[in-house]
Design brief:
Length: 195
């Protein structure tokens, strides 16, 4: 009889893990988090390339040097906010009831979207035609803060649902996986060197 009980417990455990993480069920993965990271990182080589072209055209190396430093500062701000955002979203899920967690996540998502809008405005103004550097030609970025924010919100809300079906360490491990090195933004100098 004990063997059957153990088998039932094991089957229930496997079922809980697979339903929490299978494709098509909530929180199958955190692909939206990884996608947001990539979109933020992809802005840097494009902006640096743009600055280089203007600097060469104007024959003024200061445009490149000063612009590169300025973009680095803006990237540093979004890098810090990205880390805080992921940590806050995880804390919302792990430390609150479902209702409070949703309000907590909505607040932090709204704050991060605001940060992304500020960053987007900065790089857009720096690189658009007739921007403050008098550029000829636009640099197009695949960076839409509202769209990214919506996808992130959906991902974390799905994670809340999935985490609700998990217990203890499994729940914590699942939710906090977005704090791993794979989800950190790449260092600015590494991205700037790509151009």
């Amino acid at each position: 009889m004990k063997r059957y009980n153990l088998l039932i417990v094991l089957l229930l455990l496997v079922f809980n893990i697979t339903t929490a993480q299978k494709k098509g069920s909530p929180a199958a993965d955190f692909s939206a988090v990884r996608e947001a990271k990539t979109k933020i990182e992809n802005t840097i080589p494009l902006a640096i390339k743009h600055l280089k072209e203007i600097s060469d055209k104007e024959n003024d190396p200061n445009i490149f040097a000063n612009g590169k430093t300025a973009i680095g500062k803006e990237y540093g701000k979004i890098d810090l906010e990205w880390k805080l955002y992921r940590g806050n979203m995880n804390n919302c899920i792990l430390n609150n009831s479902s209702k409070k967690a949703k309000k907590c996540m909505e607040y932090h998502n709204k704050m991060f979207v605001g940060t992304m809008i500020n960053y987007n405005n900065y790089i857009t103004n720096l690189t658009r035609k007739n921007g403050y550097l008098g550029v000829e030609g636009d640099t197009k970025f695949d960076f839409k803060p509202a769209e990214i924010g919506t996808k992130l919100s959906e991902s974390y809300f799905n994670a809340l649902d999935a985490a609700g079906r998990m217990k203890g360490a499994q729940r914590t491990e699942f939710v906090t996986q977005t704090m791993a090195d794979d989800y950190k933004l790449a260092p600015y100098n590494d991205l700037a060197a790509q151009q």
